[in-house]
Design goal:
Blueprint lengths: L1 E5 L4 H12 L3 E6 L2 H8 L6 E5 L5 H10 L5 E4 L14 H29 L3 E5 L12 H23 L5 E5 L8 H5 L10 H12 L5 E2 L3 H10 L4 H15 L2
Parallel strand pairs: 1-2, 1-4, 2-3, 4-5, 5-6, 6-7
Length: 248
């Protein structure tokens, strides 16, 4: 059994890799920083391979698939955020974010999904955020990328169900998590963050029960439900104020 985790150098990706290793899966750790991947590999109890690459580059995604076609679980976790008003944020950073948060996930999901359908087995976990349910002023590009991945994954669930495939897809939508994401995005959460260890353990449990949408934490679940009932303009005002409090 083999699992491939992108964005595996820290946070949720790291803890998902450790959990899967503890379950007996050989692990392929994918990220840009070799030294951090080596540190993660020390916590894994099974055979572990380090794969250093930048997945915001299309050809690197295709090469990763070519090098490691035969896997049982794909975790698309790599991604980053950016805080600020759209008129002020850096265009190159936003395009790089779109390449990593959307394009890489799209490519890897498509390539591995077709391989798994051929074998009629496998699991894909795409990591998004509760941001997928919100409009996201002040982090608009990031929220938009997470909405894309959420809709892609849920649509694939129905397509797989219709063809009676044994391939399963899940989408993880955590709220605030205490990871390095906050430093990269330039934000500080005002509400209490969940630990990446708790999120990973909860996610693994739900993924193996073939849960489609995985939302760790009661407050996050209630928040997502509330989003469905509020008028859009109210939601925009509330979300803006929440985002503004994150500003460092």
């Amino acid at each position: 059994m083999k699992a491939l985790i992108t964005g595996a150098s820290s946070g949720i990706g790291k803890d998902l890799a450790i959990n899967l290793s503890n379950m007996g899966y050989d692990i392929i750790l994918v990220a840009r920083k070799e030294n951090k991947l080596k540190e993660v590999s020390k916590f894994c109890n099974t055979k572990t391979e380090i794969y250093v690459t930048d997945l915001s580059v299309e050809e690197n995604c295709k090469k990763l698939f070519s090098d490691h076609k035969d896997i049982d679980i794909l975790v698309n976790n790599a991604g980053f955020g950016l805080f600020g008003e759209f008129k002020d944020t850096d265009l190159d950073k936003e395009l790089n974010m779109i390449d990593l948060n959307i394009k890489a996930v799209h490519i890897l999901t498509k390539l591995y999904l077709n391989e798994m359908i051929r074998k009629d087995s496998g699991k894909i976990l795409n990591v998004t955020s509760t941001a997928a349910f919100l409009p996201g002023p002040l982090m608009n590009t990031y929220y938009s990328t997470k909405s894309y991945v959420f809709k892609l994954t849920t649509a694939l669930f129905e397509e797989l169900r219709r063809i009676k495939s044994n391939v399963k897809v899940s989408v993880l939508c955590p709220g605030p998590v205490n990871t390095n994401f906050n430093n990269v995005a330039g934000v500080s959460f005002s509400m209490k963050s969940l630990s990446s260890k708790y999120v990973a353990e909860y996610t693994i449990k739900k993924m193996f029960k073939n849960k489609l949408v995985i939302i760790p934490g009661l407050m996050n679940k209630l928040g997502v439900i509330g989003c469905k009932f509020l008028p859009l303009k109210w939601l925009l005002k509330i979300d803006y104020n929440i985002q503004k409090k994150k500003e460092k």
